[in-house]
Specification:
about 80% helix, about 130 residues, mainly alpha, single chain
């Protein structure tokens, strides 16, 4: 494949990834609304708390999948570009920035900042549901 074909496929993926990310943030917003509703009802049934927890965990899992697909596709694109002769300077900068490496999918974010961010989200959801307000 040529550099242009590789970059066109990557940009097409980025569009679909952005749509999934927007849907993931909407689902996360719904999970946060569930937490607020449970917090406002001190006598919320345990069944509702369990369902809200499962929904929150599912929303974080969905976002982790989107993040994993993004990283895997970035890495795959860089690996393909590294095999092309005569890259443009912009494509070479992209390859240098990301670096050639393993493009396998992982739910564990490659960036530690994202890992902390997802742990904070889990803390907000689980803590908001199960820890009583004083």
């Amino acid at each position: 494949m040529t550099e242009m074909e590789i970059l066109n496929q990557f940009n097409t993926f980025m569009i679909s990834n952005a749509i999934y990310l927007a849907a993931g943030f909407f689902i996360l917003w719904v999970a946060f609304r569930m937490v607020v509703n449970i917090q406002s009802d001190p006598g919320a049934p345990i069944f509702n708390k369990v369902l809200a927890t499962l929904f929150g965990l599912g929303s974080v899992y969905f976002l982790l999948q989107i993040n994993g697909f993004l990283y895997s596709n970035w890495q795959g694109t860089v690996n393909q570009l590294a095999e092309v002769d005569n890259l443009t300077s912009e494509a070479q900068q992209f390859v240098d920035f990301v670096g050639v490496g393993d493009s396998s999918f992982s739910l564990i974010p490659a960036d530690p900042i994202f890992a902390i961010w997802y742990l904070v989200i889990l803390g907000i959801i689980v803590g908001g549901i199960w820890i009583k307000r004083s």
